[in-house]
Automatic annotation (TrEMBL):
Residues 32-397 form the Aminotransferase class I/classII large domain. This is Succinyldiaminopimelate transaminase. It holds the Pfam family Aminotran_1_2. The keyword Protein biosynthesis does not apply. GO terms for biological process: lysine biosynthetic process via diaminopimelate. It comes from Variovorax gossypii. Keywords: Aminotransferase, Transferase. Signal peptide: none annotated. The keyword Ubl conjugation does not apply. It comes from the Bacteria. Its cofactor is pyridoxal 5'-phosphate. Its EC number is 2.6.1.17. One of its GO terms (molecular function) is pyridoxal phosphate binding.
């Protein structure tokens, strides 16, 4: 067996299951889960219609690169959303959701034979696929802290020069999971300069880009690259998907875009990896990428939901409206002494509401003279259910926090 498999850590939801083992929640309350970031809004009918009308495509093997119509749907959306002009033949590829692409990109980019051992950087807290991808590519993960005082911006300045010298891949997530923070142009400028100096690839995870709460939509890494005089997107790959944008997590559909030289190597890897998108999924994807009205409606639903829930929680939790995404990243009350696991367990036991302990989304690391888990003392709440259910969950959390003060 691959010995690197032994280095993988349990997934957050496995740890949550273990945390709740033996706990019987109060029968007074029906279960409400804010734990898993799975979209719950209705899938638009026209996407389902496009899928069912194309089932005949199941009789043929699909091309790993997808056909030109599919790739043009990607570049058309990039043009509409970001005013970017990419070549559909060389600068985009279909993927089966951003999750599998994040993992397989690391296998493509990282050279495991390099000496000293290569490094893959990720934010801390982070999406655990980044860590698993790094470990199974033979790299050493390095966790870069997000700073609460700076709206959870990643502290790239804290990374030692000797680590940058070994870095081959940097994962960024903007809008961020779990914090909802969006990277500003100055932050991209800093990261691009570091990439030019050290030669590492940047993988920009942008799957939450269409759920935002400010007037200005989130900046894409591709958009930042052009603004900063890098129209070739060198050493940059952006990844996005339809799961959150179009409420089709089961479709497993997305695309990657950016540096043509990396796209070419990624296509070679994927040809052997067996990760082609089926023709039926491609047809549904073309329909989805070509329509914005359902995206506007989806965003309006999230805005209304967050506007209803956030003010309820602000008096009892350290929480505020994020820049984007569908998560609230909240600090637990002082009475819990930073014990996010105990908070989540007791909330589940007393009020049958599930939230995810923030420490499960981060790693204990040492920065300067201090060792810390930057997720400790926080919880992640995914506001994916209907508004009424999310409001009910928030009201229970308020009662739970007020009870704890007595």
């Amino acid at each position: 067996m691959n010995p690197l498999l032994s280095r993988l850590q349990p997934y957050p939801f496995e740890r949550l299951k273990q945390l709740f083992a033996g706990v019987t929640p109060s029968p007074e309350f029906p279960a409400i889960s804010l734990g898993i970031g799975e979209p719950k809004h209705a899938t638009p009918g026209f996407i389902k219609d496009a899928l069912s009308a194309s089932l005949g495509a199941l009789a043929a093997y699909p091309a790993t690169a997808g056909d030109l119509k599919l790739r043009t749907a990607f570049t058309g959306w990039l043009k509409t959303r970001y005013s970017l002009a990419l070549d559909p033949a060389t600068q985009v590829l279909p993927v089966n959701g951003s999750r599998e692409a994040l993992f397989s990109l690391a296998q493509t980019v990282v050279d495991p034979t390099a000496s000293p051992q290569p490094v893959v950087l990720s934010p801390n807290p982070f999406y655990q696929i980044y860590e698993g991808a790094a470990l199974l590519a033979g790299a050493e993960p390095y966790y870069v802290p997000s700073v609460p005082a700076r709206n959870f911006a990643v502290d790239w300045d804290s990374v030692p020069e000797e680590v940058w010298a070994r870095t081959q891949l940097v994962f960024v997530c903007s809008p961020g999971n779990p914090t909802g923070a969006v990277m500003a142009l100055d932050e991209w400028k800093k990261l691009f300069a570091l990439s030019d100096r050290h030669g590492f690839v940047i993988a920009a995870d942008e799957c939450y880009s269409e759920i935002y709460f400010r007037d200005e939509p989130p900046l894409s890494g591709l958009e930042a690259s052009v603004k900063l005089g890098r129209p070739d997107f060198r050493n940059l790959i952006a990844l996005t998907s339809l799961s959150k944008r179009s409420n089709v997590p089961g479709l497993r559909s997305g695309f990657v875009a950016g540096d043509a030289a990396i796209i070419k190597k990624f296509l070679l890897y994927r040809t052997y990896h067996g990760s082609a998108m089926s023709g039926a999924v491609a047809a549904a994807s073309i329909a989805a990428w070509g329509d914005e009205s359902h995206v506007v409606d989806n965003r309006a639903q999230y805005r209304a939901k967050f506007a209803a829930v956030t003010p309820l929680l602000e008096p009892v939790l350290d929480v505020r409206l994020p820049d984007a995404s569908f998560y609230l990243w909240a600090g637990v009350p002082e009475v819990w002494a930073g014990d996010d696991e105990a908070f989540a367990r007791e909330l589940y036991a007393q009020y049958n509401v599930t939230v995810l302990p923030g420490s499960y989304l981060a790693r204990e690391t040492t920065y300067g003279a201090h060792s810390t888990n930057p997720g400790r003392g926080r919880i992640r709440m995914a506001l994916v259910a209907e508004t009424a259910e999310c409001v009910e969950a928030a009201e229970r959390i308020v009662r739970f926090c007020k009870d704890a003060r007595r």
